[in-house]
Amino acid sequence: MAWIDTGTISLRYEDVGEGAVTLLLIHEMGGTLESWDYLVPLLRSSYRIVRYDCRGAGLSEKVRGDITMAELGADAMGLLDAIGVEGPVVPAGVAVGGAIALYLASRYPQRIRKAVAMSPATGIPAERRQAVMNRADLLLREGVRAIIDDGLARGYPPPLRTDAQRFARTRAQRIASDPVGFAATMRMLATLDMEEDLARIACPVLFLAGTHDGDRPPAGVVALSARIRDVSVKELPSGHYMAIQTPELVAAEIRAFIDH
Predict the structure, then answer these.
(1) Which residues make Cβ contacts (< 8 Å) with residue 66, sequence separation at least 6?
(2) How many other CB atoms are found less than 10 A from the CB of residue 178?
């Protein structure tokens, strides 16, 4: 792992693998670049893989105040520029990371070849926004332990916990998240509106939905996909954290999508 100051943000990242195509992996809210630990070994022989801790997450620069999607998108492109990635890029993200991948496809079309969004979180329905803001306040008052088990019950339910060690590692990692950055990302999501961004996307997009995902169930993913011109949707027997829960299935779908 390494760190780099892009001029606006200091990011922890990893750059491995070989290939003409660069795969940019963007983790979910509460995650870190370790969210991809089970997926990277399956793909690094075929692609150059860049993964990083987003602003306010993991060991990247901490935040005070708000986070915006524009900042998260600029962070990703700033990292690619700083480490010399010039060829075609395929961003692939989970949840909020999926939203960042879609934002990059919309706002930086000349740099993006294709995009992958797993259980994409591009906003919150109006009737749920206040509950999400209240959850962010709870995070700041009491820390991640106050919300962790409720969140995992929806995104990493018992049917997917057959590997007890993997589940325990995932839970412990999330408990260690910075509550300030976590809450700032949650507040950003609560007010996010990507309707115009989705309509502008011209490159091919792959949506992956998890059968057992209580946060972003398949029906919602399918509905969201209707806003994009060139999109395919695949449902996997997985959950919200599918790169951790079923990395082999995710790797197969990403490889088929990129190489097609």
Answers:
(1) 184, 187, 188
(2) 19
- pLDDT category of residue 18 using cuts at 50, 70 and 90: confident
d(C-alpha 173, C-alpha 119), whole Å: 20
Other CB atoms within 10 Å distance of the CB of residue 127 = 7
**What is the model's pLDDT at position 187?**
97
Q: Is residue 73 within 8 Å of 101, Cβ to Cβ? A: no
- 3-state helix, strand, coil split of the chain in percent (to 5) is 45, 15, 35
**If 0-12 CB within 10 Å is exposed, 13-18 middle and 19+ buried, where does residue 53 land?**
buried
What structural domains does the chain harbor?
2-259 (3.40.50.1820)
pLDDT digits (tens, 9 = 90+) for 50-94: 999 999 999 999 999 999 999 999 999 999 999 999 878 999 999
Q: Angle CA(251)–CA(119)–CA(236) in degrees, nearest 5?
A: 50
- In the block, residue with structure tokens 């395929």: 90
Q: Is the CB of residue 255 less than 8 Å from the CB of residue 169?
A: no
Amino acid at the residue 44:
R
Q: Which residues contact 206 (CB under 8 A, 6 or more apart)?
A: 114, 115, 116, 117, 231, 232, 233, 234, 253, 254, 257
* 253/53 Cα distance (integer angstroms): 24
At residue 140, the pLDDT reads 96
H helices of the chain, in order, are: 40-43, 69-82, 96-107, 129-142, 148-155, 164-175, 179-190, 195-200, 218-225, 242-245, 247-259
